[in-house]
Structure formats: C-alpha cells, structure tokens
Amino acid sequence: MTQVRRSQLISPFGSGALLTDEKGITHVTSAIDKWFPSTADSPTLDVDSFRVDEPRLSRRLGTDHFRLPPDFNLRRKKNAKLSIPSQRFPSWHFCPEPYCGLMRQASPTTDMAVYCENTTNHSGGKKVRMFQVRFVAMCDHGHMSDFPWREWVHRQVEPTCTMPMRLKAMGGAELSSIQVSCSCGSVSPRNMGGVLESNRDEQTTRLSTTLAGDGILYTCRGARPWAVVGDQGKGDCGRHIQGSLLNASNLYFGDTVSSIFLPPAEGSGISDELLIKVNDPDLADLRPAIKSGALKIPPARKTFRSVLKLREDVVPDEILDAAIGIVCGLREKPSDSGTDPGNEYPDEVAYRREEYEVLLKERSGRLLTIRDPGQENYSEEIRSCFSKVMLVERLRETRVLTGFTRVMPGGGPALTPEMKRDLLRAVPEAADIPSENWLPASLTYGEGIFIQFDEDQLRVWGKDEDSEARSPLNQRFDKLHSRYESTMRYQEGHLDGPRFVLIHTFAHLLINQLVFECGYSSASLRERLYVSSDPDKPMAGLLIYTAAGDSDGTMGGLVRSGEPANLEIIIRRALSQAEWCATDPICMEAGEAGQGPDSCNMAACHNCALIPETSCEEFNRFLDRGHVIGVEEKGISSFFTALL
C-alpha cells in the first residue's frame, strides 16, 4: 500500500496518474467512481462525511457537490480502512542485466514481486526478480496503454506471434541502444530510437508513422487501464500514439480549478456557522431534491429546523431559506443584471471578479476573515503604487480536479472540457445522477496578503504615448505575446496586456522574498491573480496565500509580513534583488529571444523570478523582470520608481 497525502490525489497523483510505491512497483490511480465502495461492500460507509459544498464553484462546474478523497483509518467505526484502489501498470516486465532479458506480462491486480521463470539461463539457477519496463504509450486525448512491444518488433499493426520477447541494453545512453527481439527469429531486433518523438505542427508521432512502415499508421486504441483493469483498448480512438518514459513530465497533466470561499453578502444575516449546519449529513437526501426543483424550500424548512434544532426566533424563516438555497447550489438572489442565469460565470475573469470585490472589504467569519490595516499607515511610496493592502487572516481554498490530459497541458485541439472530465470516470454516464455528479477536491485553510495596484498609475505606466508607434514597453510585451500566440496552448485574451506580466512577475518576486521573512517554504505559498484591462471594470490585484497549512490554517507569519511596519521593507528587498540576476547579463539578454516553458518568458530564470510550478498559476510562464524594474537602455521605466 502506497501512502500519499489526500491533497496529492488532486494533483499530481489524481485519477489516471502513475505513482510508485515503496517496493518500486508502479501503479495507476483508479477512476474516481471506484474510490468509494458500495454500501453492500462497506456497511459502515458514510459518504457524506467526505462531502464538500462550495455552491459558487458547483454552479460554475455544473456539479452537485465535491468530495474529499477517502482516508485510511483503523480506529474509527465509520469509514474504517478506506483506500484508493490502483492497478499495477505497466504490465510488461523484463529480466534485467546481466541476466536473460526475458519479457513477460503480470496481472494488473497483483501486488507481489514478479520473478523470471527462465532460471536455466541464470548463473547457479538463481531466481531473478523482474522489473517493469520503462516505456508506455499515450495519446493527446488522455489514453494510455502498455507499449506495443509485439507490434513494434514485428513491424505489424496486428501481429499473430506469441513467442517470448527479450529486452536488452546494448550499452550507451541513447534510446537506440535499447533493443527488443522476438524468439520467433522471423524478424531482426529493433531498437527504441525515435519512439518518444513527435511533430507538434503536423500532430504526428514517430511511433505511429514508423511502427509498421509503408505508410501504414498505428493509432491509439483508446485504452483506459485506470478505469477498466487490464484495458488495452478497442481501437476506437484513432489519434497518433506516442511513446513515453514512466517518469516523463508530460505523461500526466491534472486540470484543476480553485476557488476562495466567499461568505454571503453582508447584511444578509447568514453566518458561516449557519451554512455549515445546513450542510449536515443527515439532510443529504433533501439537498439534491431542492437543487433539482423536485422539492421546494418552504416545505423542507420544517425538516431542517427539526434536525438542526433551529428556533424561529433565533434564525428567521427568510434567513434559513436563503442559507438552504446557497448550500443547495441555487442562486443567492435572482439575477438583476439581465444576464443569463445559466451563464453566471462566462469566463475565469468574471468568476474572480467576485473574489476581487470581496477581498477589498473587511470581513469577519469562520471561513473568511479580512482585516484592513489602514492604507494611511503605509509609507507614501507604498501608497503611490498600491491603492489597497488587505490582510487575510483566514481563508478556505477549494481545489478541484476537473480532468486530465497527456502529451501537453490542455490536451489536443479537439479535446473538450467534457471529454477531459469523462476520463476521470469508469462510467461517465453515472454523473447524470445528481447524487453521483461530484468531483474530487481538497481543502486548504490558510492566510494571505491581498494587494490592489493603483489603477491610475497603471494606466500612466502602460500608456502608448506616441499614437504613431507602440511605446517601448508595449513593443516588449508584443514580443512575448507573439511567442505565446505561436504555441498550441494559446488562448485569446488570456495574456491581458503589460499589466498582467507586471503583476504576475511581481507576485513571483514577492513570494521568493517572503520565504525568507515569514517562515513558509516557497512551495507552501501560492499566487492568485486578478487582472483585467476592461476600462469599465478593471482589475489589478494579487493574493499571495498559504497553499499548504495545518487545519487551523495559519502560522501567522504571512499576515505579519503584510503589516505596515514590514511590507515596505520586504517589497524593497524583493525589487532590489530583481535589479540584478545572478546570470545577468545573460538572463536579461536571453529575454529578447525568449526562455523558459514555450519560450514565454523574457528576463526570468531560476535565479531570479521562477518559483515551484505548483505555486504558479501559469506554470512559470509570462514573466519578465523588465516589466517590473524597467529597462533603461530600451526606454522602459519601472512601475515601482518610488520604491527603487
């Protein structure tokens, strides 16, 4: 049994991902509809104890609720000994050097070591343990299978030979030094050279085009071994297939969506404590019925009062009804904006705008506490750059796994969000049942610092002064944007002007400095960006918060770093460090041609502006110190002139 944290089952070891146990055996995590046993198999199962309700995020993703991954516990009476199922993968094993190299398949359900049966070729007739092969096959629609060893060595799409095969390393560091041969003797050994190669421009792979030769394509069979044990597919996918190493970084990309819990509007009378009570597991049967409209709130109100022991003089009917509506995923109030209620959050910007507006105000609650330290208490230099600094003493983040891809983040051009979500389940149709329409989630309780940039200063800084030509700053941004446009991950409107690069890079610089000041590691801090250049509804803010805290959510160090007596010193140090990178002038000069993932960074490297990818919303892309500190010889001024 492999032990992993529950949060790791959202990322990076979610459904369909590979993980290696302490015995060195690699497994694939099962589909999420296999995570919880049936009540017949586990009479003490209480699924509602794993339920997470985040109405705002549920409306956005179209789910009924979320669930925490089950945890293993021997002591409690309910939900004891629960575990996430997994299968051995890949199933092919080989006898290692200096022994015979014989290959054989093992059952995906065995957790025992596999031994070579060919003891006559081993010195002293010793029993040799076999190891899983290092290669698998995948496609950009999320499928994964054993590497097609027989097809590859026989150069046929559907070989009939069943003779033993052998895998041998002939010496050398290249894949071409690894050879597979068949005992039938009808084909010559074939090396593994080129099986990892692909042509992204033409959406082709070397494995698909050269496996059989003569223009015959070998395509993906649609295998889903995490959903169906031992599945090798039925040939119903048709995408080009690509070889991969077990430890390759592009073998699994989990798609996650996160949300900061927002309390009901001030003045509504609905407290966080009331929302938690209304989520009581004993009321689990009522909530789906209310959400679907089969049961109205007023008739159900009496049951809620009885179970929760809520007196009407303490919680009036209108407040209880509103709380029930929020928890059941109904809108808090009818839309008066004229927008389609089913399109409440047309994009990520609209979703984050709600958080942005809430973070600008003081709040006091069990799940969200925001304190205003007073802008007048900060120095004039800070006030000239930032219009607001808010200290988030307590927050709750919900992080949800919504699907996954392989080969590249986001998947192929035809891979829709619905297709990525279906990959999580063995039976995707089961999600049509309201009680089964859930996604796995993790909860983080933490603290943070919210900073709002001064909008007037931003407009002056990013303005094109010459109407005949782009300003030096915008010309620099255009170079970065053009490189982003050439990538397969391009999304129109995502890179929202120089302000996005400025705020994103500043967040990285600040995180790198905060690790020396607040006691958290860089992997424990995370950024959340609020950026929009919409002239009617501009946004320019960032939230730096703890991404890995204890159940109480805070050590307090991050909030203390944001206090008026400390924040200015930390920002000055961060900007001072950014003025000169340890690899300059190379880092600054390399930015002209692009560096980093997809060449979508300018002056930013591991010595100055990069942070752990789990802490960055953009996978360490769209970074440039030139946008932050300026580039004097290019005529680009710094936004932070007052602090430099």
UniProtKB/TrEMBL annotation:
<protein>
    <submittedName>
        <fullName>DUF1998 domain-containing protein</fullName>
    </submittedName>
</protein>
<dbReference type="Pfam" id="PF09369">
    <property type="entry name" value="MZB"/>
</dbReference>
<dbReference type="InterPro" id="IPR018973">
    <property type="entry name" value="MZB"/>
</dbReference>
<dbReference type="InterPro" id="IPR047721">
    <property type="entry name" value="DrmB"/>
</dbReference>
<feature type="domain" description="MrfA-like Zn-binding">
    <location>
        <begin position="506"/>
        <end position="608"/>
    </location>
</feature>
